[in-house]
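Look over this record before class:
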Amino acid sequence: MTSAPRVLLGVSGGIAAYKAPELVRAFVARGWDVQVVMTPAARAFATEMALSTVSRRPVRIELLDASEEGQVGHIELADWPDLVVVAPATADLMARAAAGMANDLLSTVLLATRAPILWAPAMNTNMWRHPATQHNLATLAARGVARGDRFVGPDRGELACGWVGEGRMIDPAIIAEHAEPMLRGVQSWAGRRVVVSAGPTRAYLDPVRFLTNASTGAMGFAIAEQAARRGAEVTLVAGPVQRTTPPGVTRVDVETADQMLAAMRGVLEQGPCDLVAMVAAVADLAPRNPSAGKLDKLELPRALEAAAWVPGVDVLATLVDRFGARSFFLGFGAQTVDEGHDVHGALRQAAEAKLARKGCHAIFVNRVGVPGVGFGSDTNTGLLVFREGELQDAGAPVAKEALAGWLLDRLHGRALAATTPAAATTPAEATTPAEATTPAEATTPAEASA
């Protein structure tokens, strides 16, 4: 085991594979631990001996390797790296990856990994420009937004086939330069504590009936997963949702608002947290005197009419009041906006009002009740508003995983500055309007071919 950044280099069968040893040396020179995976076709252009010598690790080629697959070795490989670099990325490999195929070791690793991928395409000019290749490129770019995938190259110049044009693999030194900030992003929350609440809570009317809301927990789970990927120690306090716990995340399940408050308080009492993301949609009302027994169906309407309702516990405001001086708090707000109204203005006004009520450091407010945003949707967008008045717009709706990564990147400097007085990064340095890129800007086909 090593604490060095872990890079898996995938080498596919193009003439540019002869540059792979040079690329490995560039990675090793930066102090990275490198594992090479080759396609069978890559053997024609680079030797296993050279790559194993410079990487100091045996090269992996065979998917069905009896010496490795006893421990499901291809999955271990996929889980191992902090970053995957594919260089050269041939038209064939990108086509198979875009189709979700897994017919050799490298394509299987690409399908199974959760690490971000840096693609360095290399092929003949006509192959690069072919609509099929461009379609596959767009598919990989769109699919890789949540992971933070990037593309570098190809370069323009003389190709091995004698043509002059786009298609040369970008120089190994440039690939290494592009890989370095990706690794920094992967490790940006390393050693930091993050607590996330997610999902709805229930206010019970009787032992079988309760008041709740439409939250699915998707946004909170996405933030927990992305924070863990970035190296944070993550605790997820989840309301009653049927979701798989993200890898590396400690999960605490609760049902009611009081239980969520107790669980969050218990985690925060263990010490300061660099980020407390209160994403859960906590029930706003609770019956003063819930029935100890199941209400008869005929009694239920009368019981509801006679019920005395009280405001639900304000989990966010309570925790901010107790722990706000030593932890950075991000609140979430869901807001409906009627058609024809100023959506941006209404969301900002709602965010500023909630900031004033809750006392937290920042609020992310999103619109609900429209397709593609909010509860029950795979995508989301909104405004991130800081209590100092700064606002950042997440742009067009994107996958919630991508939005989670965007939020963590925007909050990183401010959260660490707020919880670490001696931190080198100041709040002003952390997020400036010029840096406020949207999640969708992370990887686009246009950038890939630039």
Observations:
- Residues 422-450 have pLDDT under 50 and may be disordered.
- Residues 104 and 408 are 35 Å apart (CA to CA).
